[in-house]
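REQUEST ID: PR-0412
SUBMITTED BY: lab tech R.K.
PRIORITY: routine
TASK: structure prediction, single protein chain
INPUT:
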Amino acid sequence: MKPFFTTACMALFLILFSVTVKAQVRIGGTGTSVHPSAVLQLESTDKGLLLPRIADTTVINALNPPDGTLIYLTADNSTRIRTNGRWEKILAENRTTLITPTDYTNNSNLVANATAVPDLSFTAQANKEYLIEAYLLVQSANINNGIRMTLSGPATGVQFAAIEIMVPSNQTSQTISNLSTFNTYVQGTRMPAVGQSFLARIHAVVKMGAAAAALGVKFYTETNGTAVTVKSGSVLQYRQL
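STATUS: complete
OUTPUT:
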């Protein structure tokens, strides 16, 4: 009995030692080799990998899951990966791109007279989260003139909004603002030269509240009576997170 017990222990030790040293596992199929880049290799002709199915992320979030964690969220039937502390959908980019085909001009320095760019606007659905990026080509006939611009949206009822607006200012720097609300105008006063355009940018992550609402670009001129124009070809892109 003792020789058998000793032999069994040695065999178990060798198995555990080989698994520890190799640090690679292959499950399924008829082969034994594992691709050198893989720590786990699955092989099957009729079966798949079933991820943990979670209806609500509250409990797992309390465990501080690291980036790279995978789950299947049954609440909306989506596969999610933990990225930068958030559960991001794994899917094609699925980004909607809006492009204005015409110029929009404003020559009033009053916020009440701000110009909306209807081509760069969309309806955000209730209780949904969005990533929004806008790239605006801005032009003025006066190189000392500038633009005041914002991402417009509802004044109340939004769960959160992290908005960054970047517009060239004073020839050499940029105005960068981290905003928590819509409709806050950011100033930029740089025109490279008469007839030339500069690029202004909006980057935002927004989670809507219980009501749907339109989100879009609005602007007005820095100098009353001097026109500022958002040129055709300006773009707004958005996708649901």
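NOTES: The chain has a mean pLDDT of 82.
REVIEWED BY: pending
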